[in-house]
Amino acid sequence: MASSLFYLLLLVQVCSITAKRLDATKSPRFPAILIFGDSLLDTGNNNFIPTILKANHKPYGQDFPGKIPTGRFSNGKLVSDLLASALGIKDTVPPFLDPNLPQEELQTGVCFASAGSGYDDMTTVMSGVIPVSKQPEYLKQYIEKLKGATGEAKASDIINGSLVVVTSGSNDVTINYFSGGARRLQFPLIGGYHDFLLQRVQAFVKELYNQGCRNMLIAGLPPLGCWGAGFNMGGRCVDYSQSQSYNQKLVAMLSQLQESLPGSKLVYADFYTPLFDMMNNPQEYGKTSIFTIVSILQYIYARALFSNGKIHKRV
Predict the structure, then answer these.
(1) Is the dihedral of CA 29, 35, 38, 39 positive or negative?
(2) For residue 285, what pLDDT is reported?
(3) What are phi and psi of 293, to 5 degrees?
(4) Could you give the angle at the alpha carbon of 66 between the alpha carbons of 61 and 72, nearest 5°?
(5) CA dist., res. 129 & res. 285, Å (int)
(6) Lower CB count within 10 Å: N or C terminus of the chain?
(7) What is the tens place of the pLDDT at every residue in 188-238?
(8) Could you give phi then psi for residue 233, rounded to 5 degrees?
(9) What is d(CA 162, CA 123) in angstroms, rounded to the nearest whole number?
(10) Are 204 and 213 in contact (CB under 8 A)?
(11) Which residue, among 151, 64, 155, 173, has the nearest Cα to 108 in the 3D structure?
(12) Distance from first CA to last CA of the chain, Å, rounded?
């Protein structure tokens, strides 16, 4: 799959929600896109909260339109932007916390993700970023603003028909668990911590469902390996098979959960396979070695595999 595009992989899974192919000549399949999670999807919310985890400075944004750092942990657009564009919704997804957010952006969706976040609230204690469990609180605020802009009936239709995209879990495993914190003592075996995270995922999905969201794309863990930030913080390398174990449990859980939530469509997004391919075939992505990306961007790009705008488009 080395020659395919990253966001097209996501689109294949998104299109399975409607069982129809995307046709650019027709109206967007989804009226809006709502983004939750961590730095893979955060389009700038951390700019507006008290945390040191910000990407509002160079070298970030050097390939973004206007060549300015926007708070995206990338030199270009993120998967959230690329997916929204590919679906015909909008070119970029704005951060909800931007105080200058134009009202017209509300109708097509916003981003609630926060770089450094995780499903486990303990993951964000030191950084002060917004844990995934708290992001639905901003969704409630968004819905109220949307009602004010469009009316309650239309707002409900937008939320029901929107595509929700969620990516998280990597920070939990690498920074929280494998850095030797309290969770490691609570769950000596990684499988137990995986089960704990999946309980958090389940509660999160139910909360979004209760607020009206129906179409959700939930990403699994990528092949974490010697992940940059975790390694520099004293963590240890994570065996790739542990990501696969979590992902297998996530697939089973989403299937069962969908059956219990009438009208919901819960789709698993496989980030593991394409990124594993990048690591084994870096030449297909314009790199002689995947480690050249890590060595150039180093610690400042916590997720080296996601820091390159071109990488964001690949699988």
Answers:
(1) positive
(2) 63
(3) -65, -45
(4) 30
(5) 32
(6) N
(7) 999 999 999 999 999 999 999 999 999 999 999 988 876 555 555 555 667
(8) -90, 10
(9) 28
(10) no
(11) 155
(12) 7
